[in-house]
Amino acid sequence: MSEPPNAPPGSVPHPRTVRSFVRRAGRTTIGQARAFETLGPRFLLPYTGEPLQLAAAFGREAPTVLEIGFGMGEATAHIAGLMPQKNFLCCEVHEPGVGALLKRIGELGLSNIRIVPHDAVEVVDRMLTPASLAGIHVFFPDPWHKLRHHKRRLIQPPLAARLASRLAPGGYLHCATDWEPYAQQMLEVLSAEPLLANTAPGFAPRPDYRPLTKFENRGLKLGHGVWDLVFVRS
Prior knowledge:
This protein is of the alpha/beta class. It is 35% helix and 18% strand.
């Protein structure tokens, strides 16, 4: 029996650290399965635990943006279409989400996306070298509402330091959440990271490139807020 596409090599250890994902239930559709078969060989990158040569992976030299957890890939495909001059390296372990983004890549004729179907924290640690990224997107990570689960939240000081180290000087980290207590924690954590500087007095206006998702629009109509944070590497 072959390993699933997000399984690491047997030699890769699994330390007990905060992960960038929660496994969710869901079935891959016929269209998504077809996208895996036809587009996967070109757009999926295996987790190797070795430094990734970005120019070789994308077939060109270009500023690269890392996206951590893209859900069903709506925002990812939209942003990649707006910015053909940039490469987008995207991490997601939810197989239907990976299939959905592959399908969008085919429908929109995108060529500037590569997907690593693996935990983004390990990808950052083992496959991305210091100062290699022009940007990082972390949109709507799990807020882990319950107090006893806050330690599982993705944006915490150790990861903030690692993400900052992977940004080139002038590179940016853009986070967004619809849970205000998590937004406040993100603001505190990122403001305390010495390599990062806030681009706004507090929360930032939503950058034009980040689209409003159906989920976000529904929440806004119900009076829910959304908070964006944009920090730059000094």
